[in-house]
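Reproducibility note. Readers wishing to regenerate the assembly model reported in the main text can use the exact inputs given here. Chain order matters: entities are listed in the order in which they were concatenated for prediction.
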Amino acid sequence: MGRYLVGRLLQAVLVLALLLVAVFFLIRLVPGDPVRIVLGPRASQASVDIVRHQLGLDRSTLSQFGSFASGAVHFDFGRSIVQSTPVSTLIAPRIAPSLFLIGYGLLVAFLIAIPLALVSALHKDRPSDHAIRGGSTIALAMPPFWLGILLIYFVGLKLGLFPTSGYGQGFWDHLRSLTLPAVTLGVSVSPVLLRTLRSSLLETFGEGYVEAALAHGLTKRRVLYRHVLRNSLAATITVAGVLVGALLSYAVVVESVFGIAGLGSLLVQSVSTRDFPTVQGLTFLFALCVVVVSVVTDVVYVVLDPRIKL
Amino acid sequence: MSVRSATRLRRLRTPRAARRHPRASLIVGVSIILGVLLLGVLRPLMGLPAPDTQNLADVLASPSWAHPFGTDNLGRDVLSRTLAAAHLDLAVAIALTLMSLASGVLLGALAGFGGRRTEAVIMRLADAMLAFPFMILVIAVVAVFGPGLKGVFVGVPLAGWAIYARVTRSEMLVVREKDYMLAARTLGYSRSRMLLRHALPNVWRPALVLSTADVVLNLVLLASLSYLGLGVQPPTPEWGGIIADGQQYLLQAWWISTLPGLVVVLVGAGFSLIGDGLADLLGQEVRLTA
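Running the prediction on these inputs yields the following structure tokens for the assembly.
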């Protein structure tokens, strides 16, 4: 166990180091002069030189990477070119709204997927199963921004039930403001969860312990909730990586649709304004999240499942 | 426990012989896609104005016989723009998918066929690509090239090959143990001939089925990037761009943003049907994850 943990952590550190190199070269791969692109063709040579010096682009690549890497360890990615504040100050206040949205969206996704997967698996190959699977196909083809706009129009503007933009003040206000965005996010990622749960439920039905529990005279309901559902839910950990990737990806879009000042909307703005240091900081932060989640799920999986011996 | 509930749970385990109609879902799926494309070509016959024709006397008009999807803030016909966008969106999404498919199948076959070191390098790279959020990786590449299709065409295959490589490699691990591969080796065929002539024709099926789901994802991705202003740039009609333009006029003209989305969903459903049909014909399963 200890050995596995150390190996897994070393692997994660290696991946992060490679990602750091990739993020470092992000700005160096830009065709043409990145500073000219940011400042525009009419900027004076003097201001171009100043920004180039600020970004450290006038030094040797090796010395640039040295200071970039040592800064990145403290999450210092320099100053934003556009806003002239440190990238970390720009990012910090946006972490909470994004985390709230992603957590809320994940909750909605589970609330959608669990009952539907149960119905679908219990009624396999019958009309309700076909309807649910067809629905998940449609949810997959639905662009998340379009779903968000539909919710803004019908639920937000016509029915006036929930705010259509922003993040609000205080916990309950956040919860209300993020309801429509979280539903958008939850519906968008639910097909992956639904299909995983459905096939894992069907697999669990065939397990010997289910038959044993039934043979012992436990009620069907009890067997379903205590034995089948529990084990099937544990199986969703295996798609946690895919799920987190989808949540982060769709959150970028959803934040922009609903005007939430989160990390995703900042990423889109920074790409549009070609604010390279901010893009670098955000990309690294997203990568860090993914690596941490994958290490945690691997460890949780091993801890939870006594059948895996190390 | 009652006898009935026992039979009920047992029935759940034994899959009932599935009544599937692979041909029917293939035909319906292909007809949807071709139908949408054909409508775009037949636009002049239907009396719809060209997608970029502005009519400032008729702005934000609600859906009618003359303009089934209404008009936008410049008086352009929304259905006409949606159909014109279908050609661009489908062409780009299919091209992106084919690029990922081709490179992924080749690299996956190589990983399953080549030496242990080749395999380790390719599969670790694929793992890294699959772990990273797809859209954020593509956006990071767009950041390098600037908003537009160039970044999309570099970024999507860069991230997209990995899932094909993974399914093709696992297929390859089975195929390389087959008798015909042994026969090819015994006959002294070159490794490249064994790979290209004997192994590849037997490992592409799961990847092809996967690609139908991938087209849908790429369609949604392209529309999303364009919606965010990072993909196809206005005034070129593109689904995401049309929907983004309409969002500012949502209260006065709900149709600009909502109706084109229905076409996107319809086309996505068409590809899913093609995927289901192909999967049944080829004896495969449609998967969302590797």
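We highlight two features of this model. Chain B has one domain: 24-42+69-282. Chain B is about 70% helix and 0% strand.
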